[in-house]
Design brief:
- This protein has one helix at residues 49-55, and strands at residues 9-10, 25-30, 33-38, 44-48.
- Strands 1-2-3-4 form a four-stranded antiparallel beta sheet.
- The chain has a domain at 9-55: N-terminal domain of TfIIb, CATH 2.20.25.
- The protein has 69 residues and is mostly beta strands.
- The N and C termini lie far apart (36 Å).
- 10% of the residues lie in helices and 28% in strands.
Length: 69
């Protein structure tokens, strides 16, 4: 296996702006750039890491941790 493997996550309920397919958008980070790609038609969008960090919400904090018994 290659060490440069990307962790890919699907975005539930998201629709592709190009082909309008639902649940086909996957999110991954490549070279510090957040990318979204439609696995059906290949449409891609990208956002540089600096913009991704600005979009995060630093004022949020953890209220509690769920520990199943």
């Amino acid at each position: 296996m290659s060490s440069d493997r990307k962790k890919k996550r699907f975005i539930a309920g998201a629709s592709c702006p190009e082909c309008k397919a639902i649940d086909t958008m996957m999110l991954y980070i490549e070279n510090n750039v957040e990318k979204v790609k439609c696995v059906q038609c290949g449409f891609q969008m990208a956002q540089p890491g600096a913009q991704v960090e600005k979009a995060s919400r630093p004022s949020e904090s953890v209220i509690g941790v769920f520990k199943p018994e």
